[in-house]
Amino acid sequence: MIAPAGALVAPAPAFAVDYLTAEQAQQILFPEADAFETRDLALDAALRQRLRARLGSLPRERWQLRLARRAGRVLGAVAVDDVVGKFERITYAVGIGAEGAVRGVEILSYRESHGHEVRLPAWRRQFVGKTASSPLRLGEDVANISGATLSCQHVTDGVRRIVAVVDGLRGTGALP
To answer: Are 127 and 159 in contact (CB under 8 A)?
Structure first.
């Protein structure tokens, strides 16, 4: 028996996996926090232009940050963002301490069929301690994973963007 023509070009199965919610990620990134405050912040035109010069691209205008607090004191912020891996979106969260250093990166959802290795703890640990003055460049201070190059590149670019945005917002007084 001959298979129908449609069977020969059937679409590939979906590979989307949701690992964490934003709320779970914020607890992982700031386990000592006793409260989180969500802030919707807009980047003014001047800050967006400074970020464009720094990043090479214009970041979106609006950002939502979750401020982690303990006994009222701000411990840092968590930003959730998306990047495109090769074809599909990767949703991730970045925790940045009050001093401006990355505390961690968590992959919330991964929708690609390949490159899921960006979720490996050893790869994500490379970002810990990085600041706005760090290069945050794949192959420079962040190692690549063979077979996951686009996912590695885009998550690295996304972390660099978030670190720069949070640093820029601190400079405007929008963040404590």
So the answer is: yes
Rg from Cα positions in the chain: 18
Q: How far apart are CA 84 and CA 81, in angstroms?
A: 10
Q: What gap in Å lies between CA 142 and CA 136, rounded to an integer?
A: 6
State pTM to two decimals: 0.89
Lay out the sheet containing 102-110: strands in order across: 17-18, 102-110, 89-97, 73-84, 62-70, 35-42
The two three-digit tokens of residue 108, written as one number? 């919330």
**Please, which residues bridge with residue 13 across strands?**
none
**Mode of pairing for the β-strands spanning 62-70 and 73-84:** antiparallel
Q: Which residues pair with 142 in a beta bridge?
A: 138
8 A C-beta contact, residue 153 and residue 84: no
Query: What residues have CB less than 8 Å from 145, skipping those under 6 apart?
Result: 115, 117, 118, 120, 123, 151, 152
pLDDT, tens only, 38-72 = 999 999 999 999 999 999 998 899 999 999 999 99
pLDDT tens, position by position, 122-147: 999 999 999 999 999 999 999 999 98
Would you list the DSSP string of 36-55? EEEEEEE--HHHHHHHHHHH
